[in-house]
Structures are given as C-alpha cells and as structure tokens.
Design a protein that fits this description.
The chain is mainly beta. It has 14 helices and 79 strands. The strands form 13 sheets. Strands 37, 38, 39, 40, 41, 42 and 43 form a seven-stranded mixed β-sheet that branches. Strands 62, 63, 64, 65, 66, 67 and 68 form a seven-stranded mixed β-sheet that branches. Strands 1, 2, 3, 4, 5 and 6 form a six-stranded mixed β-sheet that branches. The relative contact order is 0.04.
C-alpha cells in the first residue's frame, strides 16, 4: 500500500515498534506503510503526538536534483518548515542521512546553500550526538523558537545522493572549463572570490568539486581577468578535504574588503594545459620588470628575444599579476643570464593563461646566446598609487588607495625619498622632485586626505609600506603633495670624471648634477658599475672598483648611492640608484675606478725539465715518493694535468730518475687513478708501510707545455688594484687562473708585472670570490724571475680540470691591506672563541650582530689563525662588552684577508646595543664539538623538542635531570632570549632518530649545550617518551594570578616595556599565549586591569595588528606609541593556562606541539581518489585509486609503511599498521587495471596521488595487488553525565561498541581533541577517577594511555593502547570543555534588535555600556548576520533600551577595531569584572531589524 506520503515516518523513543523500524522511502527492508502504523496506534491507544516530543515528524530534503541532498525541512503542526544552521554540523547531517536511508553524510552546508525556504523556521541549535535514529531525537530549542532567518537554512548532502558535481561554482575566462576565474552562485547571482589567503588547498577543493582533477596552481591578482559582479567570498580557508568550496571557512557571503583586481583563479590538472611553467622577472628592482626566466626540469633559464613582442610580454605580466605590458625589451636589456636558454621564437596570441601555453620551439631548442635574452616591463600590480593632473603619467598629484578609497597625500614631511618609492612603484625611473602646495591642483572635494608625515627610507616597494599617520582633520586639499619622476625612456646623461688618480682613467668617481660635482658612495659598488664608468670615459675595461675613499675623500655633495648597474648601460646615470643626493654615507666611502689596462702537492724531480722526473707528493706536510707497484699511464695523466704539463707520455719505474732522499718516506703504493682526477691525492692508494723502498720510486714523463703569448692581466674583486682574483685576457675574453700549483713565486711575478711591489700572499680557493667566465690558466709554475706571467710554464687554453672554487688570488705589498693585528676574541676559555673585538683609534670595541653570519666568522678565524668557523653566535653569547660598538652590518664574502676588509657601516655608526655583540667559535678553540642545535615540532623556532646534530645525524636529548639551567643554555645558543620552561616527557612529540644526550648538567654559563656536562654521545637508558623540550621567549605576563595571565610586557632592543591597549584584541592575545605556551587565548584586557607598568619602563607598542597566526608578538605589525599612550592604558592578556604533562624535572607548563595532522579529514570521510576494498572494515583492505576517472589497484613492488601512512591519513583512518602484498585482500577485478607501481611516499603527503610512482604497464598483475591496514579512527565520541553536553565522562565507540577511556596518561591535549571533535570550544579540564560517575558495568574500557598532540581531528587518530584488564570504571576519564561563545539581542521586536547578551561558561549575561561605540555595534550586527548597525544616539540617555537584564553582567569596556569576526575577540575587561548595574545594559539595533 502506498499512501503517497512524502519523506519518512518517525517513531518516538520507547515506542513498541522502536525507532530502528522507522519507515523511510528507499529504506529497503525497513519499509512499514504509514497507514499500518496509524491503524496499530488507533487500536492500542498509543499516543501519536505530544506537546513536548514529536511523535511522527516527517522529514525531507528539497531543492536539489536528488532526494538525498537538499535543504532540510521537517513537518510540524501540519506545516513544513526549515532548520536553522546555528551549530549545524556533519554529525547532525549524519542523523538526517541515516533517517532517510541515504548512506552517510558528505557535508552539512549552511547559509541556505540549497536556496532559502519560505515557511516557518522550525528548529534551531540542533545538537545531535550522532547516535540518534532520527533528527527529532537530537537536542534542540523548542519548535519555532529561534533567532534565525532563511539565509541560515541548513542543508545536507548524503553519500547516496549521486551528486558528482556541485553546480554552484564555475571557472570562467580560461582556456577550458577546468581553468579560469572562480565564480560562485549564491542568491541566484554569480560572483567572484577574493584572493586574500587563496592557495593551492582552496584551489584543490574547486578542482575536485568540478571533477577537474587536482589543482596545478591558484593564481590571484585577476589572472583570468576582472569580474564585474559581486565579490561573494573572501578569506577562504579550506582544509583541502571539503566536498565544495562553500564548505570551507570564509568571511560571510558578500563581506569583503577587495576589488576585482584581486579575483582568484584556478588551473586544474584536467584543464588541458600541459605544463604551467613557473616564471619570474629578474635583475630589476621590481618584481614586475626584468629579464624573463622560466622554470623547466627544476632549472631556471631565459627566453630568446627572436620574435619577442608586446603580446608575449602581456602574457608574462598577466601570469605574474603585474598588470599590462608597457614594453618588451630585447637584447639583454636586463643583463645576460648564465643558465639554459629554454624558449625561442615565442608566439603568443595574447589570451594565454601562461607563457608556457604560447607557441614556441621545443624546450631548450634555440639558435641564441644570452645577448638575446628577452625582458618585460609591466605596469605593476593593480597599483595603489597614481599621479594625477600632470603632463604625463610620471608626474602629478599623488593619490593612494587605502581600504578601497582613493585619496591624496598631505605634503607635511613629504620628501624625495617618498617620491622615490612612488616613482619605483610606477616604474617611472628615478625621483626628480618632491612638490607641495597642490602644484598639480587640489584633489576632488569628495576624496579624503589619507596620509600625512609619510616617512619612506626610499627603498620600500610601495608607498603603503612606509610609516605614516592618519591626517584626520589636520590637512586639506590645499596641501596635496605632488611628485615628478624621470619619465621612462628619458634619462639624463650626467657628466663624469675620475679625480685624484694617476691618470684620467683611474681615480675617485665624480658626477655633475645641478651644475655641481659630487662623489659616488661605495655601497653596492662593484666591477659592473666600474665597467660602465670606464666605457663611458673611453678608458677600456675595468680592472678594479675600489671603495673606502681609495683615491682620497671628496669634499662636495655625495650625489649617488646604492648604484646597481647591469653592466650594459651607456652611462652611469642610466644605472639604478637611489635618488640624487639621497644617501647614508660619508666621504670615507667614496667610490673609485681603475680602468685598463698555493703551492702544489705534487712535483717531478731529477728530470730534464719540470714536466719529467721522479714523482714526489706531499701528504700531511711531508714530501715523499711513490712506489711503482701498479703505477701506470692513468696515474701519470693525473700528475701531468695537475702540473699543467700536457699529455701523459710515459709511466716509469725502478728509480729511473734516481732514488728519493733517504730521509724522505715512500708515501703511496698501488695508486689507482681513473685518469680524470684533479689531483694525485684524490686517487685510491695504499700506505706502503715497509713494502717499498726507494729503489722502486715511480717516475713520469709528460708532454711539456708552455705559452708564448703575453696576456693582459688584472686583479679584481678587492678594494685595491694590487690585490684580488687574478684574471688574464685571452682571445678577447677575460678569464681566471686555477690555483693548482699556485704559490708565492707565481704571485711575485704578477705583482712585479702590475707595478704593485712584492707579493705578500698567494691565496687559493677563490679567496676573492668566484669568477664566472673561462678558466684560462692552470698549473702555473713560475721561477720567480719572469717579467710577465705569460713567461712562466703554464697549461693554457681553457682545458683544465678546475672550477671557480679554485680561482687563484694575489695580495701585493702596494695593496694597502693592513695587517690583521687589530682583532681579538674575548670572554672565553680559548683565544679562538669569544666576543669579537676590534681596535680602532687606539680603542677596543665590539661588533654588532646585525647580518653577522658564518662567512664573517670565517674571516675572523682565518685572520687569527684559528682554523675554520664553527659558529657565529650573536646576542652577546660571550657576554656584553662595555666600550664602543665599532662595526655594524658587517658583510664579508668569506675571502677577505681581514675583518676590516669586509663591507660594513662606517666605524662607530650603528643602531645597536651590547645585547647584540657578535661572537665567534673557531675550529681551533679547543671546544671539542659545538653541536648544531634546533627546536623541532614546536609552534616557532624558539620552542620545541631539543635536537642536536652529531656525526651528521640529528638526535634528541633525554629529560633525565633536564632543568631550566639546561634550557637557558639552549635558548641563548639559539638567540631566543631566556628560557621560559624546560619540558620533559616528549611534550613536543617523540623523536624517531638517535637519543644523543642524557643527564645533561649545565651551569648556565656555557656557550653551547655541547659544552655542558653530560654522558658520552649516544650513551643513555632512555626512550623517546623522555625527549626533552624547551620554550624560550621575549614576552611575559606580569601581575596576574599565574604566568598565563597578566599585563603584557615585551622586550625590544634590550628594553622591557608594556603594550598600549589601543587596538588590542584576541588575535594579538592568541600570539602571546602561543608564544608563552599557555594554550588558547581567553581574553584581551584593557585599562591596566593587572596594574600599570613601572614608571621607568616605556610603552613600546601600540596598534598591534596580529593575524593570530604569527610565531611571536614582535612579528606583528605595530606602531611606536611615542607620547600617545601612558601606563593607564597597559594591555593585558588571559590565556587558558593549560595543565599539561611535564616531566618531573620540568619547572613550568608547556605549549601544545604543532602536528602535521592539523586539518585532516574526520574519520568516516575519505577523499574520492583512494579506497580500501575487501577488508574487514573501511580502514583495511586492497588499495584502489582513481586516476583519470578510472579505478584500479596498486602494485606491491616497493610498497611500504610510509605509503600506507598516506593512505590512512587520506582516509582519516589513524596511524598505519601494516603494508601488505600479494593480494592479501583478494585480487582486484579483472576489468580494472593496475594503475601504480613503485610508489615512493615520504609519509607526509596529503594524498597518495601526490607521491612519486611509475606506470606499471604490463609489469604487474592483480596477484601483486597491494593492501593496507590502518589502526582505524573512530569518529564517535560523547561526554556523558555532565552538567551540559560539553562536560562529562568520555565515551568512545570502537568497532560498534561504546565504552569509556582510562585516565592513565589522560591530559589536556587529549581533552582538546575531544572538545574540538564535539564543537565545544577550548578544553578547560582533564578529569580523572570517575569525576562524572563511573561508566556502565556492561560497557568495556576501550582506551588507555591516549597520547594526543592536541591537533588531531578525532580522538581515534591519537596513539593509545588496549587497556586489557589494567583499568576498571573507577578510573574513567572525564573532560570539561568551554561552551562555545554566543550572543543574542533580547527583548526586542526581532533577532536583530534588543538588549545585548552574551553566553559565557554556560550562562547568559549582559554587557555594560562603558566605552561602547558604533564600531562595537558593527561587530555585533555582523556576527548576528543582521547587516550594518544603526548609528548610536549622540547622548547616552537617548540610546534605545530594551528593559534591564537580570543575572550576570559579563562584559565591560569593550573596544573593537571593527575587523573582528566575533565580539569575544575584542579587547575588554575580565569576564564579570565591571563597575556597572543593569541600568547600563547596552542595546543594539541593526539595519536588518
């Protein structure tokens, strides 16, 4: 019988038929005709309706193509109505799908995804545990009681819906339906998505939703053109596992601060685009101009300019989000590249998505050289600055766009460095003039003045990056600033001269500007810059580019600084540089120009010339001979090459050239060279011991090689023409000299040839930097009497076995390089380790650690004869100095002879304090090993599991005896401030490699952890469950009840101070809490709640603007408060102060570790491209994957546990247990192919398809099908017998059985997972010992020793053990979570107006009107989805009131920025802390009322 009733019949709990017998359409064998039930009820008198319990609630899904997907509607009082999406989640959706016989829930879309209903909203705040048989069993508000509109109608998509594509999304303006601008359709209107935070995970959801494969790229910046309709979505944040884009987190529909220049795009793998090559523009100051380079086969290369035109350039600009193409320069305008030339004869139509879509010759096929490298100049990204009202686009009134509004800039403080930024941003050349007083006319009256007191350094990428203040009413349009730039293509060719030198082609560089001569600063000055000068003056090529006022100090203006020539410019004034006259230099840095113009370890002795004789080698400082056993022509070839003696002619034995000296040993036996080695010492050989005597000495005869050409010569890459890398000119090309055989005699010939006196040293190993051209000479062997280098015996012509790491150098006596006696290392137990001090003007002083690195330390160690550098510690590791700070921003190439040869700020010029004194530890310091150290698996580099590097392997430290002194050494070694806590018990997760150190015992004064007393490396009795951790910090909370609450204090530049509460909110507090390891942020507090800071301490920060994801508060944007804030506005913070496990040796609580599992799908939800088939449950079985729409199996060749780990993670099935082979779960169907072989996952990939693998072809059959077994992740958890749904005894369901969790090892991290899984807000307490009554005797105890990191998606994903008989119900674990924050407007005419009430800790309470503002009201209305807030009345007594509240007054002194997503993120006093009565309860009226 079919009564034609739609939907499903629901029977009440306790009904004799039972809910498991509910009759639903399509439910198979469970169908019961509704009429039969009605007749049975009539006869038995069983009630069918009740005022409190819905007895026969029908249910349906509407407005979709399928009955198993759509808007949820329920029938009550003979009327259909919708369900509000407040609290609606996948668990609620699962109950609906189960009730309708539609399988499992795929998604629980909110926001009227399936259209808005038009009848009653029947249900709100539905809260299902997931075990209910029907939706009416779930907790909910009473029928019809809600504060919702139909914009919040809930929906469901079930697994049996057969919906393979969600039709409300599309990609437009691309070359295929699988590439283009992203558009979504809510409210029957298409609109775009803003690219804020848009990334590959978001794009992946779009591609999967459209059935377009995986995401190749997620371009922003309107790559596929600008849309013209609504911008529907902003700040999209997908986990990557969602079914549809609308399931991802995002701002509310239509709420954005974007324009269509930020429209997001997607390119999917099925787009038909064979390869979207990465692209970049290089060798320019702007990322939107430069030489075009593309990435192919993991190597960057250039594009040839054959046929290169504006259409091709346009594609590049669009691909990079750089606007339109202004020009397509050819002829290596931006310098010559040095790698492959990848593309030639590019021919774009102009509509392509990427350059690699254009027609071109095959990759790497061309007939070009790098003189033909193509370039591009783009207009720039949808610019936020423009010049208006001038004669051309590079001159005019300055206008900027802030927060979507265009406006002008006030001329207060406006200067040339500000104009320089504008000119660079607009690609208008150099700054010419900063103009004031509305020179180009006033701005429009309707446009505001947006900036005043702009303070650019001149190097910023955009004007918006410069500090400035809000002018408010201080400026009008009669003060509008203007700018004039050197228009593109119009360059001033400044006159130039070389002064104070020996000839017109050598001297101090001077340029003429504004009828006045001035000098050039040596910042960034190099041989390319000097080359332009020499060419401009007709003085040949550049021999050297000395800085440091080598030709004396000038006395006039310093005209140019930071000159950066590509080397191809016609004049110095064509090179990029800071604006004329803008510099931070003194005349001690005046640049100059000079225009044109290690001993061997093998030798041949006793022969007719240097290329024949007895072979002698030097090993460990001793010379000796080679035994002739096994000596052959391959060995001789190496000797001949090493000596530059041409080809090998003969391998001789039996002391042909006489025996070696009796006092010299025989050093080598059985030499086995391949003949290609660079040196004889590189060949395998044996120690002869007593097996050989000198009567077996080996000999060699080579083809002698000499040269007759007298080559031009120069020394480069030094401040002096008499020191540097040796370069010779041959065949019209400069090249270097290999250091094989290079010694002081060779260097002496060079110094004499250049007229530079005698040789001081002959440095090898590219001491003066690596060359980039040919290596012309090798195995130079001078007697020392030659007139020129070309008179020496040499292997010439570029054939050698050297690389530029072996370029030879020379230092001559006339180089004016001072001796390195003015340096010392102090405050250490060794002269080769300590704080760096230099002697200047007869006074010792320190070096600042700004930019201090291992290369700088290397120069110090070499200068002191202390070996190589082991480390370059900063932050006063060796104590603070007390005298002058002499050097700052030291920048050594690593080849300098002395620290004073390195580039640095002028002597004594710095912005440092002694807390930044630099140090060095050299290899000869007598410190046995300064082990590298890191903190792993923490939220930032200053917190985590301690790991040390020993024998090239990272390992952990055992927590035996681990304490705060040990942690302090770690923090100091890493430059991470002071130690906040010393954590044990693998607080930051268990390591997997060696345990290197145990029983560490530091005094606290050591330089490095490896200096502390400890057991020998690797000697321990520990497991990784005892891995030690550390939390360091430069922020603290003071004056509160515990370390996780108090007044916020930060340390900047060595000073502690407070933070002003202007703009202070929960996002800022979140960063502080994370940095201190104090769990989630609870409250942002204002008005010195924890007392004012010390009068002597400054207020250091104001308007802190953290996103909430930063690693440290100092990383957030903020302003210097100056005199704007006093200590009565000191900000406070309250964190959860999680009670986390700490080893007995720890002194403080810690912070939750970061886990790569964050954002993984909940159990029960699997991505569509992998599945496990034929096993006992969904988390074990034969592995099947879908590639190109086809399902198939995986071959077991190379199949391992790391591959299984990816499958388990992808399926939400917990850890990998077993990798199985040989069709353990049966062979795949014959009709399905084997799709993968030799899968090589790292174990961290998001999906199996992301791993490397091979196409098996015919190599594998189904008898080799791979299998996988995962631990399985339960998606079912509940809290029972507590005061509300977010507190109670923890119960889980495993393998269909409900049971409890043992409290052994139970802690707040485990509770955090439960709270997240249940949607209950932050974890508050981990309870043990039947805190909520024991579990039912018949239920088992299912888990013990749960070890969650706190970031897992479900409790079943955490490691745990089977309790067996070890736990009974008297040890049942409990959990208390914070009920989610909520707010409402009460006692008004609708949900969008009324008295403001908030829910905290389960109780509703009111908000006091102190400090209340329109901004606060806007946050409330937006959170309630009620549109904009109506403005407040000007007087407090005129504000609307909706009766006084009762009970708690929860909040006071709320101060919102206006950008918060929820009122709880705004700064406020403590919850419940106020000086108000209910007469001051605030009310709000929103426009959607």
């Amino acid at each position: 019988m079919n009564m034609g009733f739609p939907g499903c019949l629901l029977l009440p709990a306790g009904h004799p038929l039972g809910r498991s017998s509910a009759a639903c359409a399509g439910a198979g064998k469970t169908k019961i005709p509704i009429l039969l039930v009605w007749l049975w009820a009539s006869m038995t008198g069983f009630p069918m309706t009740d005022s409190d319990i819905p007895e026969l609630t029908q249910l349906r899904l509407v407005n979709s193509l399928n009955r198993c997907a759509g808007r949820v509607e329920v029938l009550h009082n003979q009327q259909w109505g919708t369900v509000c999406d407040d609290g609606w989640d996948i668990t609620d959706a699962g109950v609906v799908c189960k009730q309708l016989g539609c399988g499992t829930a795929l998604s629980a879309p909110r926001g009227a995804r399936f259209g808005r209903g038009s009848d009653r909203v029947w249900l709100d705040e539905v809260n299902c545990a997931g075990t209910e048989a029907a939706l009416s069993d779930c907790k909910t508000r009473p029928w019809g009681d809600n504060d919702c509109t139909h914009k919040e109608d809930a929906g469901v998509v079930c697994s049996d819906s057969g919906i393979s594509e969600v039709a409300q999304i599309r990609l437009v303006n691309g070359s295929s339906r699988c590439a283009g601008r992203v558009e979504v359709l809510p409210n029957q209107q298409w609109g775009t998505v803003c690219d804020d935070n848009w990334d590959l995970q978001d794009a992946g959801v779009v591609c999967r939703q459209l059935g377009c494969g995986t995401a190749l790229s997620a371009p922003g910046g309107a790559r596929f053109g600008r849309g013209s309709d609504h911008i529907w979505l902003d700040e999209v944040h997908c986990a990557g596992t969602e079914v549809a884009l609308s399931d991802c987190r995002a701002e509310p529909w239509g709420a954005s601060n974007c324009d269509h220049g930020e429209d997001a795009g997607v390119v999917c793998s099925d787009a038909g685009i064979s390869e979207v090559a990465q692209i970049r523009l290089v060798n320019s100051r702007s990322h939107c101009a430069g030489r075009v380079e593309v990435l192919h086969n993991q190597q960057w290369g250039t594009v040839c300019d054959d046929n290169w035109d504006l259409q091709d350039a346009g594609v590049v600009c669009r691909q990079l989000g750089c606007g339109t193409a202004l020009s397509a320069p050819r002829g290596a305008r931006f310098g010559q590249g040095s790698d492959r030339i990848w593309l030639d004869e590019v021919n774009c139509t102009g509509t392509e998505v990427a350059l690699s879509d254009c027609r071109a010759r095959p990759w790497g096929e061309n007939n070009c050289n790098h003189r033909e490298d193509a370039g591009v100049v783009c207009s720039g990204t949808s610019s936020d600055v423009r010049l208006v009202g001038g004669p051309h686009r590079c001159a005019g009134r300055v206008e900027v766009r802030l927060d979507g509004r265009w406006g002008t800039v006030c001329d207060d403080g406006w200067g040339l460095s500000d104009v320089a930024v504008v000119c660079r941003q607009l690609d208008c050349g150099t700054a010419m003039e900063a103009l004031s007083g509305k020179v180009f006319g006033p701005g429009n009256e309707s446009d505001p003045v947006l900036m005043t007191n702009v303070e650019c350094q001149g190097t910023e990428a955009a004007l918006g990056s410069c500090p400035y203040t809000d002018p408010e009413d201080l400026c009008q349009h009669d003060e509008d600033a203007g700018a004039r730039c050197q228009d593109a293509g119009i360059s001033e060719v400044a006159q130039i001269r070389l002064a104070n030198g020996p000839s017109r082609c050598a001297g101090r560089v001077e340029v003429l500007h504004n009828q006045q001569w001035g000098t050039v600063c040596d910042d960034g000055w190099d041989l390319q810059d000097a080359g332009v000068v020499c060419r401009q003056l007709g003085c040949g090529t550049a021999l050297s580019a000395p800085g440091g006022a080598r030709f004396g100090r000038g006395s006039d203006r310093i005209w140019l600084d930071d000159v950066n020539c590509t080397g191809t410019e016609a004049a110095l004034s064509d090179c990029r540089a800071r604006p004329w006259g803008v510099n931070n230099c003194t005349h001690g840095e005046d640049a100059g120009v000079v225009c044109s113009g290690a001993s061997s370890d093998v030798r041949l002795i006793g022969g007719p010339h240097r290329c024949a004789g007895r072979v002698e080698v030097r090993l460990d400082g001793r010379w000796g001979t080679v035994c002739d056993d096994g000596w052959d022509l391959g060995d001789v070839a190496v000797v001949c090459r090493q000596l530059g003696c041409g080809k090998a002619m003969e391998a001789l034995s039996g002391k042909v050239f006489g025996p070696g000296n009796e006092s010299d040993p025989v050093l080598m036996l059985n030499v086995q060279c391949q003949g290609t080695e660079a040196a004889l010492g590189s060949c395998p050989y044996m120690d002869p011991g007593d097996h050989c005597q000198h009567d077996e000495d080996a000999g060699a005869r080579c083809q002698d090689a000499g040269i007759s050409e007298v080559a031009q010569l120069r020394l480069v890459n030094s401040r002096s023409r008499c020191a540097g890398r040796v370069e010779v000119l041959h065949n019209q090309q400069w090249g270097t000299v290999c250091d094989d055989g290079w010694d002081l005699q060779d260097a002496g010939v060079i110094c004499r040839q250049l007229g530079c006196g005698t040789a001081l040293s002959a440095p090898r190993g590219a001491r003066f930097g690596r060359g980039s051209d040919r290596i012309w000479l090798n195995n130079v062997n001078c007697a020392g009497t030659e007139v020129a280098l070309s008179d020496c015996r040499i292997w010439l012509g570029g054939k050698n076995n050297c690389n530029h790491g072996e370029d030879a150098g020379v230092v001559c006596s006339d180089s004016d390089i001072s001796e390195p006696a003015q340096l010392r290392l102090v405050n250490s137990r060794s002269r080769c380790a300590g704080r760096v001090e230099v002697l200047h003007n007869q006074q010792w002083g320190t070096v600042c650690d700004d930019s201090w690195d291992i290369q700088d330390a290397l120069v110090v160690c070499r200068q002191l004869g202390c070996g190589t550098a082991l480390s370059a510690p900063g932050r006063a590791r060796f104590g603070r100095g007390s005298d002058r700070i002499w050097l700052d921003n030291v920048n050594c190439t690593g080849t300098e002879a002395a620290l004073s040869d390195c580039r640095a700020q002028p002597w004594g010029v710095n912005n440092c304090n002694h807390g930044e004194d630099a140090g060095v530890v050299c290899s000869d310091a007598g410190i046995s090993e300064v082990a590298q150290i890191r903190l792993a698996n923490g939220p930032n580099h200053c917190a985590g599991r301690v790991e040390v590097l020993h024998n090239q392997q990272w390992g952990t430290v055992c927590d035996d005896s681990w304490d705060l002194q040990d942690a302090g050494v770690v923090c100091r070694q890493l430059g991470c401030g002071t130690a906040l806590s010393a954590l044990g018990g693998a607080r930051f997760g268990r390591g997997s490699d060696r345990i290197w150190l145990a029983n560490v015992n530091c005094r606290g004064t050591e330089v490095a952890l490896s200096d502390c007393r400890t057991r020998p490396w690797g000697d321990n009795n520990c497991t990784h469950g005892e891995d030690a951790g550390v939390v360091c910090t430069d922020v603290r909370l003071v004056g509160g009840p515990h370390r996780c609450a108090g007044r916020v204090e930060v340390r900047l530049d060595g000073r502690w101070g407070t933070v002003c509460d202007d703009g202070w909110d929960l996002g800022d507090v979140a960063v502080v809490c994370r940095q201190l390891g104090c769990g989630p942020a609870m409250e942002a507090l204002s008005r010195k709640v924890f007392g004012p800071g010390n009068e002597s301490d400054p207020v250091l920060m104001m308007d802190v603007q953290c996103q909430g994801t930063e690693a440290a508060l100092g990383s957030c944007p903020y302003m210097d408060p100056g005199d704007f804030c006093q200590h009565d506005e000191d900000a406070g913070a309250r964190c959860k102060a999680a009670d986390m496990r700490v080893s007995s040796s720890s002194s403080a609580t810690g912070i939750p570790p970061h886990s790569p599992g964050t954002g993984l799908p909940a159990a029960g939800f699997a991505l569509p491209d992998v599945r496990l088939v034929g096993g006992p449950h969904r988390c074990a079985g034969r592995v099947e994957v879908r590639l190109d729409g086809l399902w198939g199996t995986v071959c077991d060749d190379g199949w391992g546990l790391s591959d299984v780990a990816v499958v388990c993670r992808q399926l939400g099935c917990g850890p990998a247990m077993e990798a199985l082979s040989g069709k353990v779960f049966g062979p795949g169907p014959k009709s399905e192919p084997v799709l993968m072989m030799d899968v090589q996952c790292q174990g961290t990939e998001a999906a199996l398809g992301s791993c490397q693998y091979m196409d098996p072809g015919d190599l594998c059959q189904h008898d080799e099908d791979a299998g996988a077994r995962c631990q399985g992740a339960s998606s079912d958890v509940r809290l029972v017998d507590g005061p509300h749904r977010c507190a109670g005894r923890v119960e889980v369901r495993l393998d269909g059985r409900w049971g409890t969790v043992c409290d052994d090892g139970w802690d707040i991290s485990d509770v955090a997972v439960v709270c997240r899984q249940l949607g209950c807000g932050p974890a508050m307490e981990a309870l043990s010992g039947k805190g909520f009554r024991p579990g039912v005797k018949s239920d088992p105890v299912l888990m013990r020793n749960v070890q969650c990191q706190g970031t897992e998606a479900v409790l079943g994903s955490c490691p745990n053990t089977d309790p067996g008989d070890l736990c009974q119900h008297d040890k049942d674990a409990g959990a208390r979570c914070k009920e989610p924050f909520a707010l409402r407007l009460a006692d008004g005419p609708g949900k969008c107006s009324g008295r403001l009430e908030v829910r905290y800790d389960g109780l509703w309470g009111t908000v006091c009107d102190s400090d209340w503002s329109d901004t606060n009201a806007q946050v409330v209305c937006r959170e309630l989805r009620c549109g904009q807030a109506k403005p407040l009345a000007p007087k407090l007594q005129d504000w609307p009131r909706f009766r006084q509240g009762t009970g708690k007054i929860w909040l006071d002194n709320i101060r919102c920025k206006g950008t918060e997503e929820t009122l709880q993120n705004c700064a406020h006093h403590f919850w419940g802390y106020h000086n108000c009565t209910h007469q001051k309860d605030i009310s709000v009226i929103c426009q959607d009322n």
